[in-house]
Design brief:
The protein has about 260 residues and is α/β, with parallel strands linked by helices. It has a single domain, classed as NAD(P)-binding Rossmann-like Domain (Rossmann fold, 3-Layer(aba) Sandwich). It is built from eight helices and seven strands; from the N terminus they run βαβαβαβαβαβαααβ. The model has no long low-confidence stretch (mean pLDDT about 95). Nicotinamide-adenine-dinucleotide binds next to helix 1, helix 4 and helix 6.
């Protein structure tokens, strides 16, 4: 399905990004893992090599355009082209955001810089190459929280609503160059990010009244997800692989929910 395609996955070292990278590799792509955590990124790259695909880890900070420029130029010098860019890197907020129940200024700044500008930087760095080839698949990871604001996590919800909007704008701008830009809005996935959300949501409770992070997460799944099950990084990877393939050649500018039915719009 993706034989000989070259993909970059930002934030590919853990959680959803790792799931996407593994599924793209299983379907034939070579994958660049671009992440601030070079140690975890290297582990993911080694796991991809075990699948028989090529992979490198690149220390990348998507909040800095110079860093995404370097990500693109190193990918081109190692692999010669970029077919797929997945802008997945994301954060829940500023420093130790999970220890407080209300957003502070650092949460707003950090969510905007990583969750919104991270997408903008990735696309702006890769678009010249994709325009020249008149081909490219760009997939941005937003969130169900971008569809419906989450009380107490408004800086994050606002950044994800912006990610959806930015994806539509780039889809319109890049369509004339044969480049598809789509967005995935995942729901509830058990990753390091959600482990911290569980802590944040319960930070106002006395320790003896708190559920374990996993118990709290499963209670949310039960309460919010009509299909009654959590979503997985592999689920997101399968949708990303479809959007990156020729099967999706006429799909662009779309934001697709992957949330077991928890929101309708
Ligand atoms: N977990 C969920 O339930 C869920 C739901 C909806 C959307 N999302 C979104 O999916 C994406 C991945 O989330 P996750 O749950 O896997 O989180 P995670 O914390 O497990 O992984 C995020 C990855 O991004 C990397 N990263 C953070 N800041 C970066 C930066 N400035 N530059 C490069 N890499 C950076 C981290 O090192 C980490 O490897 C995020 O955009 C998140 O908002 C997650």
């Amino acid at each position: 399905m993706l034989s000989d395609r070259i993909a970059i996955v930002t934030g590919g070292a853990s959680g959803i990004g790792k799931g996407i990278a593994m599924v793209l590799a299983q379907r034939g792509a070579d994958v660049v893992i671009a992440d601030t955590s070079i140690e975890n990124a290297t582990d993911t790259a080694r796991a991809i090599e075990k699948l028989g695909r090529r992979s490198i880890a690149l220390e990348t900070d998507v909040t800095r355009r110079a860093s995404t420029d370097a990500m693109v130029s190193t990918t081109l010098s190692k692999f010669g082209k970029i077919d797929i860019l997945v802008n997945n890197a994301g954060v829940g907020g500023g420093r130790e955001w999970w220890t407080r129940s209300h957003s502070n200024g650092d949460d707003w700044d950090r969510a905007y810089m990583v969750n919104v500008m991270g997408i903008v930087h990735g696309i702006e760095s890769a678009q010249a190459h994709m325009k020249e080839r008149r081909a490219g698949k760009i997939i941005n990871i937003a969130s169900t929280a971008g569809r419906r604001s989450v009380v107490g996590f408004v800086h994050y919800s606002a950044s994800k609503a912006s990610a959806i909007n930015v994806s539509q704008a780039f889809a319109l701008r890049l369509a004339q160059f044969g480049i598809n830009v789509n967005c995935i809005c995942p729901g509830l996935l058990w990753t390091p990010l959600w482990e911290r959300i569980s802590e944040r949501r319960q930070s106002h409770l006395p320790p003896d009244q708190r559920l374990s992070p996993r118990e709290y997460f499963l209670a949310q799944v039960k309460q919010q997800v009509p299909l009654g099950r959590e979503q997985t990084p592999e689920d997101v990877g399968k949708l990303a692989a479809f959007l990156a393939s020729d099967l999706a050649r006429n799909i662009t500018g779309q934001s697709i929910n992957l949330n077991g039915g928890s929101v309708k719009s």
